[in-house]
Design goal:
Radius of gyration: 18 Å
Structural class: alpha/beta
Largest sheet: 4 strands, parallel
Helix content: 25-40%
Number of helices: 12
Distance between the termini: 39 Å
Low-confidence stretches: 1-5
Number of strands: 6
Order of helices and strands: EEHEHHHEEHHHEHHHHH
Strand content: 5-15%
Bound molecules: adenosine-3'-5'-diphosphate
Mean pLDDT: 93
Oligomer: single chain
Length: about 290
């Protein structure tokens, strides 16, 4: 059995953000902030496990007016900007360039702050993010398998994960919203009313969909349907990146799974930290943090 010292991927702290060796190249990441941004560019920004794959599906469907006949994968239609080798592709790609990223604000193109392009930030209850991330670590080969839930809980609280601190990620993007064309939406809003959420997203993107097209987008982006759409559910990702025997990308897709994982003590600790970190944050989240 491999010990943790055999683990081939390491975090490399770069300008205050953990990159993953073999997955990200610091030189390429540094180039991103000087990229020219077109008005038609769209960047979905998420902390890991907040519904990135979901937004990839929604964006591709809005672009195709609900049509799902293309067999291209979501991750090819709406790729990560920060992955090794993707920079050159971004610079040369035809418009519209739809991208996702987990990068913090300070590593993204400076042009965003001149209202170039559009940014959609998706936030999710960090307790559910933590749980989803714990399970994800068990099958993502580039992330070290946690010893147990408590060990991972502590790492997440310390920000010793890819994405670093959930609190910093969320606060720093939100703090710069007035400089950008920016839409803030939560995973929970999307769960509660997917149709209204898709309407909000498409109107932010200036895309007018007919009712029938909207219905198609919503139908093809429900959890139940995405689970069986091969372009959408990441089952095509090779085993050397995701060990599909150990988990599913489309795992539960629910709100409140943290209640099945957190102890009373962990919950109290988390609430205290949340209240301290987020007390100045102007948004009241729709989730019930208790
Ligand atoms: P769970 O592990 O809680 O199920 P990301 O893409 O940022 O890594 O986020 C993955 C999380 O989003 C997983 O959460 C996944 O199930 C959930 N998800 C993906 N598509 C979804 C959908 N259509 N509806 C609800 N949740 C979805």
């Amino acid at each position: 059995m491999a010990s943790s010292s055999d683990f081939k991927y390491n975090f490399v702290s770069h300008k205050g953000f953990n990159l993953i060796s073999g997955t990200h190249d610091p030189v390429e990441v540094d180039a991103i902030c000087n990229y020219e941004v077109r008005d038609s560019d769209v960047f979905v920004v998420t902390y890991p496990k907040s519904g990135t794959i979901w937004m990839q599906q929604i964006l591709r469907l809005i672009e195709a007016k609900g049509d799902l006949t293309s067999e291209e994968l979501n991750s090819d239609q709406v790729p990560w900007i920060e992955l090794q080798g993707k920079g050159k592709e971004f610079v040369e790609a035809p418009s519209p360039r739809l991208r996702v990223t987990h990068l913090p604000y300070h590593l993204m193109p400076h042009a965003l702050s001149q209202k170039k392009g559009k940014v959609i930030y998706v936030a999710r209850n960090p307790k559910d993010v933590l749980v989803s991330y714990f399970h994800f670590h068990k099958f993502a080969t580039m992330l070290e398998t946690p010893k147990d839930f408590n060990h991972f809980f502590e790492k997440f609280i310390r920000g010793d994960v890819y994405g670093n601190s959930w609190f910093e990620h969320t606060k720093s993007w939100y703090a710069h919203q007035d400089n950008m064309q920016f839409l803030f939406i939560t995973y929970e809003e999307m769960i509660q009313d997917l149709r209204s959420s898709v309407k909000r997203i498409s109107s932010f993107l200036g895309k007018n969909l007919t009712d029938a097209q909207l219905t198609e987008v919503v139908k093809n982006s429900t959890f139940k349907n995405m689970r069986v759409i091969p372009q959408a559910n990441y089952e095509m990702v090779p085993d050397d990146l995701l060990n599909h025997h150990n988990g599913k990308f489309m795992r539960k897709g629910t709100i409140g799974d943290w209640k099945n994982h957190f102890t009373v003590n962990q919950n109290e600790i988390f609430d205290q930290i949340f209240q301290k970190e987020m007390k100045e944050f102007p948004v009241s989240f729709v989730w019930d943090i208790k």
